């Protein structure tokens, strides 16, 4: 099983998301040198294919191991991490002020897809570090930034997010970890955190934990949460980070997938309290975490894209070699390649177009983040910011759902061999299964979309998004499937209206099918926009997506509009 | 994680499939004593819950192991198998002539669901044995029956199906295993078979292999396949079965799931040839295999039902305990049970109704088999036979698809805990993944449905089935969701017409969405029929199924009717 970054498709999607003229002087990315985007992606692809991907299988088979408080990453991973760090890959997105390359979010998004296509369990470590970097850049004191930020940016040290506790998962208001003020201006943390990705490992010299905890006098609920920085090693008398802090990994979870990524139970304050410093203000921890989470949500969406791409490549390669049976068209003697069977074609094409639609949505989200930061016109910057907020739950929810769907279709294309671990198709399915769960379950994404994002800017963000979809349909008037796509957008419009008028229960009941509907309409229009290039393959795939996938939109709209009463009534039988 | 056979739901579905008056004198099952069905299920439930289910997790964790040609089943499995055999459970379905209880297919179907809900990896052994029993009953010589059948029926010995070879999976025309005639009237087999479930194990004293192989002068393709019986132990001079035959297990597959079930590579004829006897006629092996396969296909559908039921129970139990967040309806202080959140309700209800729809379809299939065998009127018996043939691919394809969907939804309801192996939700997802693959992939089921079954009896079987669906809709005129259900049936009717007029490529292209459409329309009408009982829970669930699941039917019909051109065009880009 191999993975190659699909540079043609990626660059195409990247340029489409950037918009016309974006890389020209005065354009959104006019500051980037000519061809920098393409060459960065090509280098990233080379590194991922050569250094990260070959370690993916050993990561699955051997996994991270726990031994007397230490965590040993799979064979070869330490060396790969050194190459990652030394190659400067960790510093792509961060601000140049702290040693970062300051690459646009869009370019970083494409790289994130590549790392995760090659080796998702490995890529998860820098992915979470990137969220931490953003939180520190935005909220940490100058002193904390000075000491920690450059080292986390370079990858010399790694960083983690510590939110979850046994009783507090989706509901962070239930967090119990305590923080006490210490006379030296620092704090002491006591509590248990679970599901901490790379909470302990042997890849880097120090681990910077960002920890959500509660001060003694804090209000209840999420308004009483504060964010702290607690390093694994504290500075000793000589200023070198050699003193073990009072925090430790108590064990690793035995997981369905991403075996190479250590998922740690972390104990803070066994011996009096872990030394920690406040990030941002007291009781404003959740806002700081949201800085990390939004970035991480898009990144998790891109994990889904990378994994879906790899599942597609893997299954398609098999379907092009494996010979079984004869399809209807040719009743000759010799068995055909299974890719020639219409039913296998359907599976492989579905994998391809779902991947492309998810990629397009994620890249649009990333480009909107760039536009919000780079656009000089404040109105347009504000609109771009709203657009990024609107699209983020769709990017996360849809891309991770389709990662599971494509991984499962991939197993199906492999047939019996798909159920055997040696082919690797099953691993992708196991790995993918975490994506709709972490960084906010996809149910949480859907509720965020329906409960908050639809009303963003007085509903303006949604109106502009739908108007943009219609404009694509207009431009594609002669396109064979434009009628189906128009119906999909109209279905989204009707469902949106219904949700905006609905009471809370009905809106929540329709949230998940609505997110899917949104993604189908947006995906269909983005693929159709790409088809306007006239490239016969893009035309064919856009048409397939419309006729065979987005055609579900009207049914989904009916579920959103009419499904809630029977759901809420039947739900009563479950209680 | 526990499993309880849902006896109320099962008996309800069983009585509905049997039809009014079936258990009265002169009725379809009038020969069964009063209450025999209920008491048999209750006993089966007790046995499965107490003897089989507790061994499911150890089966997953430890799995079957291979050591020097032998296979060691997981701890406790030998004892469980002894209890299974001694309790007479293996003999339920077989003919009394060979020691079976001759139980109707419908009652046996319900038991099959129970065994597989409790421990699918264990239940797979007798499941395949049952297919072998049917093939031997129908095709074996009296001599072979005398020697082997009673022992396989009682469970003293087990039986296997040997079809697949590395190059011959879905396409059995590619089978290469050779059979040579021997002067003693027996045959000698040489070849390699893969994916042989329970091909070797330590549960029983002998293993009777049914092997598909090719005689030297046989025609090419499937018309040159013959079926043979090759036991692990041959009779020695004293008539006792102590002589090792020339066949062996060369190793086990390392699989995604059903770890307790040994999946063997079998080598025949290392030392000259495995001794075997012909079952049925030379070159008529495929027909004999089809006897096994149809029965096995329904049984695999029932594995899906059992697994889906267990996934639903498991997730629902968690959702009723786990407290996170507050839903819209109640913004009070304390966290709610997650089952109260509309989005979790949607997942749990979807799991419930998909399970019930699949159960209803499988039980209807089983009842049709009984009717074909027991009905005195030859026309009605013939129609029932056609109905069983029509419904079998739907029962297998849909039930195994929804087993995967429910298992994945179950993981999602567990959230982060779902990704951790200790909760067991992930195991169900891993186990379920084989179901759409083995006993004919679900693609093969869909092609069978579209390519052969739609035209059965000149299309009469399909017409009668759709007419029956409409009759339910008529009877449920006042039912809240009857409009949606009528649309689903109409969509099925339109899609069927389109397929009957379509060329082969188009029909094959639409096969998979058509199977789903068929199942949604049939499932919606069967649930609605159950709701006519007036039981509020059944009414609510039937309505939920209509409004939130079967509502996809018109979109699926459009994919079937209009999706093929773009599929076939885009498929060209894959080649």
Automatic annotation (TrEMBL), chains A, B:
Cofactor(s), names only, from the UniProt record: FAD
Residue runs in coiled coils: none
Every copy of the Acyl-CoA dehydrogenase/oxidase N-terminal domain together lies at 42-156
Taking every annotated instance into account, which residue ranges of this chain make up the domain Acetyl-CoA dehydrogenase-like C-terminal? 483-569
What residues does the Acyl-CoA dehydrogenase/oxidase C-terminal domain cover?
283-448
Looking up InterPro entries in the UniProt record yields: Acyl-CoA_dh-like_C_dom, Acyl-CoA_Oxase/DH_mid-dom, Acyl-CoA_Oxase/DH_mid-dom_sf, AcylCo_DH-like_C, AcylCo_DH/oxidase_C, AcylCoA_DH/ox_N, AcylCoA_DH/ox_N_sf, AcylCoA_DH/oxidase_NM_dom_sf
Extract the Pfam families matched here. Acyl-CoA_dh_1, Acyl-CoA_dh_C, Acyl-CoA_dh_M, Acyl-CoA_dh_N
EC number assigned by the record: 1.3.99.41
Top EC class for this record: oxidoreductase
Task: Specify the protein name.
Answer: 3-methylmercaptopropionyl-CoA dehydrogenase
């Amino acid at each position: 099983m191999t993975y190659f970054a699909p540079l043609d498709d990626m660059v195409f999607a990247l340029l489409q998301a950037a918009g016309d003229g974006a890389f020209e002087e005065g354009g959104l990315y006019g500051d980037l040198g000519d061809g920098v985007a393409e060459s960065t992606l090509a280098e990233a692809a080379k590194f991922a294919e050569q250094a990260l991907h070959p370690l993916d299988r050993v990561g699955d088979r051997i996994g991270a191991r726990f031994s007397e408080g230490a965590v040993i990453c799979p064979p070869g991973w330490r060396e790969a991490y050194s190459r990652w760090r030394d190659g400067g890959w960790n510093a792509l997105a961060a601000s140049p002020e702290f040693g970062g390359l300051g690459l646009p979010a869009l370019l970083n998004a494409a790289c994130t897809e590549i790392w995760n296509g090659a080796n998702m369990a490995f890529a998860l470590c820098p992915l979470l570090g990137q969220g931490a970097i953003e939180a520190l850049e935005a909220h940490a004191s100058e002193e904390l930034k000075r000491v920690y930020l450059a080292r986390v940016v370079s990858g010399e040290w790694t960083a983690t997010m510590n939110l979850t506790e046994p009783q507090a998962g989706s509901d962070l208001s239930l967090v119990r970890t305590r923080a006490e003020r210490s006379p030296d201006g620092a704090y002491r943390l006591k509590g248990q955190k679970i599901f901490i990705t790379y909470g302990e490992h042997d890849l880097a010299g120090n681990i910077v934990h960002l920890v959500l905890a509660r001060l003694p006098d804090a209000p209840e609920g999420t308004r009483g949460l504060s964010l702290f920085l607690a390093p694994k090693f504290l500075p000793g008398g000589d200023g070198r980070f050699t003193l073990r802090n009072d925090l430790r990994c108590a064990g690793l979870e035995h997981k369905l997938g991403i075996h190479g990524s250590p998922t740690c139970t972390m104990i803070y304050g066994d011996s009096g309290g872990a030394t920690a410093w406040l990030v941002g203000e007291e009781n404003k921890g959740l806002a700081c975490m949201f800085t990390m989470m939004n970035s991480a949500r898009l990144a998790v969406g891109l994990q889904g894209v990378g994994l879906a791409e790899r599942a597609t490549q893997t299954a398609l390669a098999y379907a092009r070699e494996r010979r079984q049976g004869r399809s209807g068209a040719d009743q000759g003697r010799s068995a055909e390649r299974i890719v020639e069977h219409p039913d296998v074609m359907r599976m492989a094409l579905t994998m391809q177009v779902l991947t492309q639609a998810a990629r397009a949505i994620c890249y649009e989200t990333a480009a909107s983040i760039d536009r919000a930061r780079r656009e000089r016109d404040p109105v347009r910057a504000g609109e771009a910011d709203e657009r990024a907020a609107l699209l983020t739950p769709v990017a996360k929810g849809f891309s991770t759902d389709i990662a599971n769907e494509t991984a499962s279709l991939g197993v199906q294309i492999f047939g019996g061999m798909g159920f055997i671990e040696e082919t690797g198709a099953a691993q992708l399915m196991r790995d993918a299964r975490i994506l709709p769960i972490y960084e906010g379950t996809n149910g949480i994404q859907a509720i965020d979309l329906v409960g908050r994002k639809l009303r963003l800017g007085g509903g303006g963000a949604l109106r502009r998004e739908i108007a943009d979809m219609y404009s694509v349909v207009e431009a594609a008037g002669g396109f064979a499937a434009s009628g189906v796509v128009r119906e999909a957008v109209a279905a989204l419009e009707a469902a949106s209206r219904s949700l905006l008028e609905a009471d809370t229960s009905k809106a929540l009941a329709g949230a998940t099918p609505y997110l899917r509907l949104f993604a189908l309409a947006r995906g269909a229009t983005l693929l159709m926009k790409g088809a306007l290039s006239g490239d016969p393959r893009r035309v064919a795939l856009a048409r397939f997506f419309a006729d065979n996938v987005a055609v579900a939109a009207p049914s989904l709209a009916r579920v959103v509009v009419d499904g809630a009463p029977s759901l809420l009534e039947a739900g009563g039988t479950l209680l």
